[in-house]
């Protein structure tokens, strides 16, 4: 599903609807991005890169970076923005497995697949031993998981897909299940982040 005017919502299983910041994702750096990007050291994999604003910024700064996304349209936008990007699923074969210095799970992408423990386990497989996983956390104190749908301004609704929402109180448990530990947390511009490393 695409949005030509920046309006797109996520519809939760309980009926709640929340707007998605499509224009922010497709624009320049968003508030809080700088605090995340300055922690990207060495080869960086941007998981669920979307239109590529983070990967494109790193590429312009000379950081070796690759964006991956399952949506071909998003990958085309990322490439147009100047980001090296592939249409790949994080759970499938990827270049550089076990050698990435930084993995980015920004813009809510800790929710990919609906199982944060499984996703972080895969992140650990991709990560170099001295690497870091940089995660954006939800600000809602009530974490959760379940099927969600995307809803467009014309009323069209996508098929349901699994997603998860992880708050600061949940990330330690999910990290531990993947053999990782939380080594730093920080807030920036009303956003919350955590850095994970091998235990």
TrEMBL record:
The keyword Transferase applies. It holds the Pfam family Methyltransf_25. CDD domains: AdoMet_MTases. The keyword Cell wall biogenesis/degradation does not apply. Residues 45-82 form the Methyltransferase domain. It comes from the Bacteria. SUPFAM superfamilies: S-adenosyl-L-methionine-dependent methyltransferases (SSF53335). GO terms for molecular function: methyltransferase activity. GO terms for biological process: methylation. Keywords: Methyltransferase, Transferase. InterPro entries: Methyltransf_25, SAM-dependent_MTases_sf. This is Methyltransferase type 11.
